[in-house]
Design goal:
This protein is of the alpha+beta class. The chain has helices at about 15-25, 25-30, 120-140; strands spanning about 5-15, 40, 45-50, 55-60, 70-80, 85-90, 90-100, 105-115.
Length: about 140
Amino acid sequence: MTETGELVFRRVHRGSPELLFDCMTRPEHLTHFWGPEGTTTPIANIVVDLRPGGAFETTMVNDADGGTYTMRAVYVEVSRPDLLVWVDGGMRTTITFVDLGDGHTEVVTRQRNVPAAYLSPQAQAGFVTSLDRCAKYVAGLA
């Protein structure tokens, strides 16, 4: 049996829940930040069928060697602008968008049933660079 765990990441962004939700669900936004530092995700490599049962697919390209990594997920819950839930294999990602009432939104990403390989410090550090890229992109929109 593969070991799994849970990860929780919290970020506060300047912007409305609607803006943050759109950044996480529209290819024209996702292409600017999806994936860890050192990767790009061309807009042609992003599929968003934003409905329960719909596909969420991305193919990241390694900037150094051109290698690719594809994520294929299925949306489980979609409630704009508060909640996104998708399942990728056995891993479940839940993103909540909390309006803080002061022009800021807290985005909480909770991943459950996370494979052991994704729990390593290196994998988590890579994921954090993706969150950093998102924060920088959103700050440029505000």
